[in-house]
Amino acid sequence: MDQLQPATSRNRLLRALAPDDFALLRPHLQTTTTQLRETLIEPGRTIEEVYFPETGFVSIATTVGGSYIEVGLCGREGLVGAAELLLGSGTTPHEYFVQMAGEALRMEAQALCAAVERSPSLRKLLLRYVHTLMIQGAQTAYANAAINLEGRLARWLLMCHDRSDGDELVLTHEFLSMMLGVQRAGITLAIQNLEGAGRIRARRRRIQVLDREKLEALTNGSYGVPEAEYLRLIGRG
Questions:
Q1: Which one of 10, 105, 124, 214 has the fewest beta carbons within 10 angstroms of its own beta carbon?
Q2: For 206, which DSSP code?
Q3: How is the chain split among helix, strand and coil, in percent rounded to 5?
Q4: pLDDT tens-place string over residues 142-183
């Protein structure tokens, strides 16, 4: 990883680090390829590695009655495993698994903790990211309680779009229903309605985002708050 520099990384959090803080992490970063549905962090298990996604993104999911429901999303803006380590837990009841395959920079959890102990500025920046992740979870709870299915789907598509290259997302109706905790028939109808309104174009296993503004209009404020906090506290990267 000697050649890795903040400017060459696609991870926005790494790009936002001060040079000295990046230098603390660089010797421990290893490039890895993430596979679709691969579990990066298991619930109840000690976290031994953390991941800075470069491409693709990771779902933070909980299990309810044997079914998965997504409670968070982490892509190139963040660090998988940040909250648990920085808040002193070391384990999580949630499962972190790859929702879109890609590449990530992996490092041992102990190395990250050691770097954070050495650098207050590194700790501060990573805790700012944890803050935005907590806000994302709060907005997810609000969306699930107060927004209809089309609005929740629109929010979720926007979040995935933010973490993707291009406008096309590789997603199945089955996976969407699992992540949003609803029946597949409901997802199919919601997709048809979004497509009919010109917001998206749906094909087999693919959804193309056509009009972000029209999607945002459906979210009733559930999208944009954590994104704005990230921009305020961390920047564009």
A1: 124
A2: E
A3: 45, 25, 30
A4: 999 999 999 999 999 999 999 999 999 988 778 788 778 888
Q: Do the beta carbons of residue 235 and residue 224 sit within 8 Å?
A: no
In 123-226, which ranges are E strands?
168-170, 200-203, 206-209
Q: Write down the pTM of the prediction.
A: 0.93
Burial class (CB in 10 A: 0-12, 13-18, 19+), 61: buried
Written as one letter, the residue type at 5 is: Q
The identity of residue 181, as a single letter, is: G
Distances (CA, A) of 90 to 44, 51, 81, 129: 9, 14, 9, 17
Pair of tokens at residue 80:
């998988």
For residue 158 the two structure tokens come to 């926007």
Give CA angle at 109 (107, 114), nearest 5°. Answer: 100
Coil, strand, or helix at residue 68? strand
Q: What is the DSSP letter of 222?
A: S
